[in-house]
Each structure stands twice: as C-alpha cells, then as structure tokens.
Amino acid sequence: MSTQPTPDDQGDVLAFLDQLARQAAADDTPHRIDTHANVIFLVGDLAYKLKRAVWFPFLDYSTLEKRRHACQQEIACNKANAPQIYRRVVALVREDNGGLAFGPEDTPPAAAVDWLVEMNRFDGNRQLDRIASEAPLPAPLCDQLAAMMLDAHDASPVKLDAGPAFFAELASYVEQNADAFQAFPDQFPPKQARELTEEARSVLRALEPLILQRAQNGNIRFCHGDAHTRNIILLDDQPVLFDAIEFSEAIATTDRLYDLAFLLMDLWEQDQKPAANLIFNRYLDRKTLAEHGAKPGEDEDSLAALPFYLMMRACIRAKIAAASADNQESDQARDALRRDATTYFNQAREFLGLAASREQTNTRLVGVGGLSGSGKSTLARQIACDIGRAPGARILRTDVERKALLKLAETEKAPPSAYAEDAARTVYARLQGRIHRSLQAGHSVIFDAVFAHETQRREIEILATEAGGAFLGLWLDAPSEVLTARVTQRRDDASDADAKVVSLQLSQDIGDMTWHRIDASGSAQDSLQHARELL
C-alpha cells in the first residue's frame, strides 16, 4: 500500500519569486496566480510557473526531480499548440551569499534549488473564461474553437491499445471523485454525492463496450487533457490552447470526445449554452468533412458517452475548486472557489439526469424544412441548445453531408449532378442512418433539409417513432422575393442554392403539409419565438 510522501519545503523559493514579481508590478496590480498545483508569478513581459511541492492521487510534485521532469514535460506537451507562449525550463540556484537567483541553461540537476517554466506573459483578459463572462461568444469564434480542438486531436498520437487502460482510468476517477466529495461534506451533500457516485458507476459499466470500440477506431489519443475555458487564450484574435496535462500520460491519454467535453461543459456552466452547442456541432461537422463522410454512425454512437464525459469534467472542476479554496490568500477568492465547487457539483448531477427536467432528458427529432432562403439553418442553430440533453441537439444538414460525400470543402460549390434525384436520395438515406443512431444513443437531433417532398417528411416521422423519440416538424414559409434576396446575399455557407434553385423549388408541389408552419418572412427573432412556443 502506497503512502503519501512528505513534500519539500518551498518557503524561500516562494518568497524570492513573490518579491521579484512585486518589484515588477505596478501598485495594486496582481502579481501572482495560485492554483492547487502551481503558482504563477508575473514578472514584466514574462511569467514563471512554479510547481507546488504537493501530492495528490493524480499528481505528484513532492520532490525536486519530479518537478524538474514536470517542467520539461510541460514545455514538450505545449509547444505544438502554443509555441507563442512557452519558452524554456529555468533553474533556481543558491548564490554564495545564500540568496536565490536564476541559474544558467546548463544548470546540473544537483545544483538546482527548484525549477520553473518560463513563459511569455499574455493578457489574462483575453482568456476564454473572461471573454465568456462578458457577452455571448460570436459564431465565428465558436467555429474557430471547434477547428482548434479538431486540429489538436487530429495531430495527437493515436493509442490503439489504450482502451482498457483508459476505461480503468475512468473507473478510478469515479472513485477519486467519491473520495473528494467525502472529504468536503459541507461542500458536497453526502446523500447527493453518494447518488452521483452510484449512478456514475452504473453508467460507466454500460459504456464499456462503446469506449473499447472507440479505442479500436482510433479515438483514444494522447490529447491536451485539460481543455477548459481558462486554458484557452485569444492571441491575434485566434484561440490558442495552452497548459496541457504534463504530469500524467495516463490522464492525457483520453477519448477525443472526453477532451472536447471539458470545453463544452465549461461553456454550458457559464451560461454560454448556444456557444457550447455550436462548437459541438461544428466540431462534428468538420470531422465529417475531413473524413469525407467515411465513418457514418461512429460519431452518433459516441453520443451515448457524452453525458458521462460532461459529468466527469464537472466533477473534476468541483473537487479542484474545493481543494484550491484552502490555498487562497483572500476570503473573497476562497468564497468564489467554494461557490464554483457547488455549481459544478450540481451541474454534474444534471448531466446524468439526477436533477434535470423532463424536457432536458427527453429524446426528440425536430425536422426543420422550407425552401432555400427560408432561414432553416439559422433557426436550427438558435433552438438546438434548448432541445434534449446537454449540449443540446445534434444538427444534421443535407448540405454538409453532400459536401463530405463529394470530398469538397464546406463552401466549395458542388456540381449540378450532386442535386439529381438519385444523389439526393443517397444524402437523405445516409442522414437518416445518422439520425437513427443518434436517437438510439439518447441524443436529440435537428434534421435541417428542404423536405420539399411529402414522402421525405413522412419517412423521418416514422424514423423518430422507430428510434423511440418524439417528433416535431417545422416548416418555414416566406415569399419568393424574400427567399431570392436571402440566397443571393448568403456567403460562406455549405448551401449552393441561388435564385435559380429557389425558382425551381417554387414550381414544385410540396404535397400535404402536416408540419407546423412558421412565417419566416420577418426577422430571425420572430421565427425563433414562434418555434420556441411550439417546442
């Protein structure tokens, strides 16, 4: 049985760095950032991160050599995603007079008093959590965030044989969470904590075959591991992922969906639900396009694991906030972290349906139809976060699937043959398969398509029933001049529709319309209000 080590004393190191940072700071300017495992000192244009001499079940910085290795790993793990930030590892050495100083680059390990990560300092106000606290995240930034996460995952080493180990790690996290909840009974009500732990164990057992299959499909990778909003910074208006997990290869070897779930969970908790949903959908859209639609159903099956992954991420934030509160110098910071711990704990319970409303847990298929230019895609994005469990409905578009099958970029124009009847049937059939698997995984879907044929509308109503989900059909109406004006003005979208397409659609008989009609001739907000009344 392993015992907790006795950590090194870092009192003089902290005092030296604190004085250095104070001297470089203006009056009343924050000069250090404390977390449960690190202290960051802000010195001019640079920042120095000191690994605390601490031990946790998931992290051990208790010895000098372990901290040196962790600093080296931090540089190695972050250079790919954030070369603008990470500089080098620096030693602290003892001078002849007994004081401390920065050592030369070739400082031997035996001569070091402690080790630091040297970074370029950045404006903390550009961190994503700060930006998200001020206003709704704009759609272009959400698309950039989705691309950032997908690029990071695609570049991450695949761990094909890591399925059993990753599953075992998840099981150990559940037990570590249970221990952490028990250690803070005033923070986490014991009865609710036991209920959450028991449900987490049960859900994880049911997910084992899916998780192992995802590993065999190449989805378990050596990822960032800690991709929440505080670890994303906007530099030159581009999101940059930093502060990857360096202290444990086991923790960073994870399902790419579990890695993404941290960002989604954080935004969901910060009341940025539309942003979380848009990033979720754009990530999967981009993945479909990058794979040219070659893996239909894989991502839809994986949605069964998403509530568990979101719950686990919320638990991590809850227990770290509770532990970090005791390291804060001010009562205000301590109280804020304790509030965070409670919020994330309650969020974790909601993700598993332990404190969710019926509307949140019901699985639903919503068909959004209408001629080109009627505002289908806009409405779908607006209502998606209100439908089903977090992070809201998966939006499936014929336009995106068509481009993926043709191996085209999303905004690249498809040839006329792509819109022939046979080609259209293929696209609809593939999306119906994706929808069926999503609904069976317990995840709600919005199907965004023209649905100009009565048979197409009837087919997806039947599909919802067969998959055990509720169905709602929305049909958007607008005058011809409005439709034509909108498609003419549209830019950077997957749809290829133009004025000629609209004219052709208007000449066709849409048959008996049994779906709810929405007047889409006015503003998008008017259509949204009507749709929400129906939902």
Task: Explain the layout of strands and helices.
Layout: H1 11-24, E1 32-34, E2 38-43, E3 46-51, E4 55-56, E5 59-60, H2 64-78, E6 86-94, E7 100-102, E8 112-120, H3 128-134, H4 139-154, H5 163-183, H6 190-216, E9 220-222, E10 232-235, E11 238-241, H7 249-252, E12 253-255, H8 256-269, H9 273-290, H10 298-302, H11 306-325, H12 331-351, H13 358-361, E13 364-370, H14 376-384, E14 394-397, H15 398-405, H16 421-440, E15 445-448, H17 454-466, E16 470-477, H18 480-489, H19 499-506, E17 516-519, H20 524-534
Parallel strand pairs: 13-15, 13-16, 14-15, 16-17
Antiparallel strand pairs: 1-2, 2-3, 3-8, 4-5, 6-7, 6-8, 9-12, 10-11
> At the first level of CATH, what is the class of the largest domain?
Alpha Beta
In the CATH hierarchy, the third-tier topology of the largest domain is known as Aminoglycoside 3'-phosphotransferase, Chain: A, domain 2
Helix-and-strand structural type:
alpha/beta
Please state roughly what percent of the residues sit in beta strands, choosing from under 5%, 5-15%, 15-25%, 25-35%, 35-45% or over 45%: 15-25%
Reported for the largest beta sheet, the result is: 6 strands, antiparallel
Shape: elongated
Q: What is the number of strand segments?
A: 17
* Radius of gyration from CA coordinates: 26 Å
How much is the average pLDDT? Answer: 92
Number of domains: 3
The CATH architecture name of the largest domain reads Alpha-Beta Complex
The CATH superfamily of the largest domain is Aminoglycoside phosphotransferase (APH), C-terminal lobe
Percentage of residues in helical conformation: 40-55%
Strand order of the largest sheet: 1-2-3-8-6-7
Instruction: Please report the number of helical segments.
Output: 20
How far from one another are the termini?
55 Å
Q: Unreliable segments (pLDDT under 50, ≥5 consecutive)?
A: none
